Amino acid sequence: MSRLRDVPLSALDLATVTTATNARTALQQTRELAQHVERFGFTRFWLAEHHNMPGIASSSPAILIGHVADATTTLRVGSGGVMLPNHPPLVVAEQFGTLSALHPGRIDLGIGRAPGTDQRTAQALRRTTGPLSVDDFPQQLSELTGYFDGTEELNAMPAEGNKPDVFLLGSSGYSAQVAGLLGLPFAFAHHFSAENTLPALALYRERFRPSERLAKPYALVCASVVVADTDEQARRIAGPGALAWVKLRSGRPGPLATDQEAADYPYTDVERLIYEDRIASQIIGSPKTVEAQLERLLEDTRADELMVTTMVAEQSARLRSYELLAELAGRSTVQGSSERVKTEV
Fold first, then answer.
1. What's this model's pTM, rounded to 2 decimal places?
2. Residue 11: which of 328, 321, 333, 334 has the closest Cα?
3. What gap in Å lies between CA 289 and CA 282, rounded to an integer?
4. Which GO terms describe its cellular component (predicted)?
């Protein structure tokens, strides 16, 4: 039995800016990618939130979601995610209520608790120097969902009656517990926290309590995947993404390098170790190589849905990677599905 052919397949995009492109091109390519995966029957297309990152144009998920939803017809489009500490819950409810009213049944609200940026930028976003405590997030989340449910004193027009599907995002056990206790679908960031995946998912399922939103646990796992015609080609086009990780870890984020720039980069011994570790944490290779690794991941995690993110420099290589992945998953060029998460027991 092929798990890859049985689970919904979705995509996460960051609107990557390269040394050869600019933000405008990156946003156009995000729209093109969404249309591309829709043709292959992908279920969701999520946009990340990052700030003060020269290589990432996805800083305003709500605006990008509207842009992508307007350019597609069947994809569920959402945030992967909105970093709630950066935003007043009332504003998020109004934004996503508006999106849901404009695109009924097609909007997802993935919520994260990390700022998605450095401390100085986080302070600029919040206009305060005081950090949020770990206890603030559950209260913020409760307030946000309350606007959609109509249980808050304020009316976040048009949120009430126009609910997106709400997911809690996480990379650790804390978010897993919160998602389980609140009865929310849980999206785990395997693409940068692989060592925590299995413990977090186990904790989520252990702590899960049925809710009005969800009757049983629903775990989405997001993996970093690069597929090409050969293992060698896949490793080469994965190079810019791994170099971006090296630079991020050393406090020097920048635009994504080209394939040749990544190949020619003068890595120090320490940088080479970080680079190889990043390559090893991803699923990279030919269709045969990737299929085996994805099947293993799905078996180990028992994921209800697979989401992939592909950080490569060339748009043609990115489109080809998703096309090969769709073929592995048995998706031909068909219309996608905007079906909601199943909540039946």
1. 0.93
2. 321
3. 12
4. cytosol
